[in-house]
C-alpha cells in the first residue's frame, strides 16, 4: 500500500512517501505555503497540492503527523492540524490517518548532523525528513 506522509507546519509542509509495499518511507518534497495569506487560503492551497500528490503517486492512504505537546496533550498546533485534517478528509477519497509526530524533527535533525550536512542543507530538507521519520514510525507500527 503506497502512503503519503505529511508533516504540517505554518510555513512549510514536509511530505514523504512509502514504497508500493508500504514498508519503507522516503522523503518526497516540501510545500512552501504563502507567507502573507489567510489561514483559509493556505489550507486550500495545501489541500490542492496534497490531492495532486496523492493522485500522482497513487496513494492509498494519507498519514498526517499530530503535533502533540511533550506530555501528549493537545495544544494550538494540534487544533490547527485537526482543522486541516478535516478539510483534507472532506476532499480526498482515501483514508486519512494521524500519527504522533513528537520528536520527529529532532530525530531527523540528529541524523542530518551525523551525516555532516551543512546548516543550509539541513534547513532545506528538515521538513521532508521529519515527515519521513513520522511515516516510517506509522508503517513500523502497522507491521505485526
Q: Uncertain regions: pLDDT < 50 for 5+ in a row?
A: none
CATH topology: Nucleotidyltransferase, domain 5
User: Quaternary arrangement of the chains shown?
Assistant: single chain
Number of strands: 5
Strand percent estimate: 15-25%
String of helices and strands? EEEHEHEHH
Name of the CATH homologous superfamily: YqgF/RNase H-like domain
Form type: globular
Cα gyration radius (Å): 14 Å
The average pLDDT value, as a whole number, equals 83
CATH 2nd-level architecture:
2-Layer Sandwich
Detailed description of the structure:
- The protein has 144 residues and is an alpha/beta fold.
- It has one domain: 2-Layer Sandwich (Nucleotidyltransferase, domain 5).
- It contains 4 helices and 5 strands.
- The chain has helices at residues 39-57, 76-91, 104-114, 119-142, and strands at 3-7, 12-18, 25-32, 61-66, 96-100.
- It is globular.
List the helices and strands and how they pair.
Elements: E1 3-7, E2 12-18, E3 25-32, H1 39-57, E4 61-66, H2 76-91, E5 96-100, H3 104-114, H4 119-142
Summary tags:
144 residues, alpha/beta, Nucleotidyltransferase, domain 5, 5-stranded mixed beta sheet, 4 helices, 5 strands, 49% helix, globular
Amino acid at each position: 500500500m503506497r502512503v503519503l506522509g505529511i508533516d504540517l507546519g505554518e510555513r512549510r509542509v514536509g511530505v514523504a512517501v512509502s514504497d508500493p509495499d508500504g514498508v519503507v518511507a522516503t522523503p518526497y518534497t516540501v510545500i512552501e505555503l504563502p507567507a502573507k495569506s489567510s489561514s483559509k487560503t493556505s489550507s486550500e492551497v495545501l489541500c490542492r497540492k496534497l490531492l495532486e500528490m496523492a493522485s500522482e503517486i497513487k496513494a492509498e492512504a494519507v498519514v498526517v503527523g499530530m503535533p502533540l505537546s511533550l506530555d501528549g496533550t493537545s495544544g494550538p498546533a494540534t487544533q490547527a492540524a485537526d482543522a486541516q485534517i478535516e478539510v483534507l478528509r472532506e476532499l480526498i477519497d482515501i483514508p486519512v490517518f494521524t500519527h504522533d509526530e513528537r520528536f520527529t524533527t529532532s530525530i531527523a535533525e540528529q541524523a542530518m548532523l551525523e551525516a555532516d550536512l551543512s546548516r543550509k542543507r539541513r534547513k532545506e530538507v528538515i521538513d521532508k525528513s521529519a515527515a519521513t521519520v513520522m511515516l516510517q514510525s506509522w508503517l513500523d507500527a502497522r507491521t505485526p
